[in-house]
């Protein structure tokens, strides 16, 4: 009996020990599983919040590239824009991913400020994007990333012709090469600074003005020579730049009936727009311009792309500014009785300049001026001739709190 009782006790003890071991093992497995689940969850949340922060940074960079600095800092207030000045981007919506919802916030820091004595000095801006768990979720999960961007300003007109950035002090007639062929005797040209006709890459000897009275002015050749485009707009400005400026200026004119447009770019994609407003008639390759453009204070650039085949300024209309014909092989026939105060420029050769037109040479100041809202010079955020150059600064990106 004693041996039987001892055997039973031993079996019971072994059973209890095995139960304890099994329980401990089960708890250990559960603990490891919970720990691994926590690690996986933390890893997923870390990746999610990181991706949300990166997305916010991209949106912040895109916004500062597309919007005027004046929408963030008041450039007219010296105390509102300076090194270290911060500003918030428009509010971003929360992002909901698999494990959590995340709040997003973008802040801009002005590392440098605009230099009123140097119009084209770049502005360096730090774009900071922070993402964190939304309220009610894992609010302790957060990530901050940032990058520095450089936003520079370039004059849309600033070639080698006299005048400098945002100005043109050219003759009433400018041609890239030569001038020839039955020039009208009834036309009137008034020189600017004693110069009536200029060529940017030709010679004075090939400027045959025929019966055109130069009003006592002379003919000159640009030295050193240049393409017509570079002489007026400069080598760093492209047609795409000019058209982009035109589209922005047109949007302002469409939104404000009282706005005086400053840039008109006529090509195959914009012809119907100007035809609908009554400024262009006929067809793209054969039409006349029938609108008054510009003013003495706010001169205009009237650019006719090569597809337009040199239309005339007709119908007694007046243009204050630059009239530029890009097509190199066309006759400037039928200029009618239009009047241009400024410069008429022709790529290639200028041939058969006929009609009872009047071109009065004047210096043109394109950098703002005039009524409020029409631009405030090359330092102003709303100048229609200001080209924005934008780039992220290499090596400035970081994924930690600055």
Short characterization:
The protein has helices at about 1-65, 230, 240-255, 270-275; strands at about 85-90, 95, 100-110, 125-135, 140-155, 165-170, 175, 180, 190, 195-200, 220, 265, 290, 300-305, 310-315, 320-325, 340-345, 350, 360, 365, 385-390.
Structure description:
The protein is α/β, with parallel strands linked by helices and 402 residues long. Helix content is 23%, strand content 26%. The protein contains 4 helices and 21 strands. The protein has helices at residues 2-66, 228-232, 239-255, 271-276; strands spanning 85-88, 95-96, 101-110, 123-133, 142-155, 167-168, 173-175, 179-180, 188-190, 195-199, 218-221, 263-266, 288-289, 300-304, 312-313, 318-325, 339-346, 350-351, 358-360, 364-365, 386-392. The strands form 5 sheets. Strands 7, 9, 10, 11, 12, 14, 16, 17 and 19 form a 9-stranded parallel sheet that branches. Strands 1, 2, 3, 4, 5 and 21 form a 6-stranded antiparallel sheet that branches. The chain is elongated and about 135 Å long. Residues 34-40 and 369-381 have low confidence and may be disordered.
Search tags:
single chain; 402 residues; alpha/beta; 2 domains; nine-stranded parallel sheet; six-stranded antiparallel sheet
Write the layout of secondary structure elements.
Blueprint: H1 2-66, E1 85-88, E2 95-96, E3 101-110, E4 123-133, E5 142-155, E6 167-168, E7 173-175, E8 179-180, E9 188-190, E10 195-199, E11 218-221, H2 228-232, H3 239-255, E12 263-266, H4 271-276, E13 288-289, E14 300-304, E15 312-313, E16 318-325, E17 339-346, E18 350-351, E19 358-360, E20 364-365, E21 386-392
Parallel strand pairs: 7-10, 7-17, 8-18, 9-19, 10-11, 12-14, 13-15, 14-16, 16-17, 17-19
Antiparallel strand pairs: 1-3, 2-3, 3-4, 4-5, 5-21, 6-20
């Amino acid at each position: 009996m004693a041996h039987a009782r001892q055997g039973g006790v031993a079996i019971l003890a072994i059973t209890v020990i095995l139960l304890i071991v099994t329980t401990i093992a089960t708890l250990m497995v559960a603990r490891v599983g919970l720990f691994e689940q926590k690690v996986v969850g933390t890893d997923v949340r870390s990746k999610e919040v990181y991706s949300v922060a990166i997305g916010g940074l991209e949106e912040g960079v895109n916004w500062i590239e597309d919007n005027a600095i004046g929408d963030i800092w008041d450039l007219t207030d010296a105390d509102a824009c300076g090194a270290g000045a911060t500003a918030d981007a428009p509010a971003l919506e929360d992002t909901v991913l698999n494990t959590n919802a995340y709040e997003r916030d973008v802040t801009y820091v002005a590392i440098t400020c605009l230099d009123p004595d140097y119009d084209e000095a770049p502005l360096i801006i730090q774009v900071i994007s922070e993402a964190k768990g939304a309220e009610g979720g894992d609010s302790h999960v957060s990530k901050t990333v940032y990058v520095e961007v450089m936003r520079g300003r370039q004059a849309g007109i600033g070639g080698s012709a006299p005048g400098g950035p945002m100005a043109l002090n050219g003759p009433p007639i400018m041609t890239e090469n030569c001038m020839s062929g039955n020039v009208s005797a009834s036309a009137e040209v008034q020189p600017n600074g004693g110069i009536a006709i200029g060529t940017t890459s030709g010679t004075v000897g090939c400027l045959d003005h025929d019966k055109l009275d130069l009003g006592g002015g002379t003919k000159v050749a640009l030295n050193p020579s240049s393409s017509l485009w570079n002489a007026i707009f400069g080598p760093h400005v492209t047609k795409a730049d000019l058209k982009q400026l035109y589209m922005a200026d047109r949007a302002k004119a469409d939104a404000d009936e009282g706005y005086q447009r400053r840039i008109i770019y006529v090509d195959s994609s914009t012809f119907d727009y100007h035809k609908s407003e009554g400024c262009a008639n006929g067809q793209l390759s054969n039409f006349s311009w029938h609108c008054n453009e510009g003013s003495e204070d706010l001169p205009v650039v009237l650019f006719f792309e090569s597809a337009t085949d040199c239309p005339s300024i007709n119908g007694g209309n007046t243009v204050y500014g630059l009239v530029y014909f890009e097509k190199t092989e066309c006759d400037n026939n039928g200029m009618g009785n239009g009047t241009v105060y400024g410069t008429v420029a022709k790529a290639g050769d200028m041939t058969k300049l006929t009609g009872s037109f009047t071109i009065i040479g004047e210096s043109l100041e394109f950098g703002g001026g005039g009524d409020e809202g029409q631009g405030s010079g090359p330092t102003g955020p709303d100048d229609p001739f200001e080209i924005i150059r934008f780039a992220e600064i290499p090596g400035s990106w970081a994924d930690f709190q600055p």
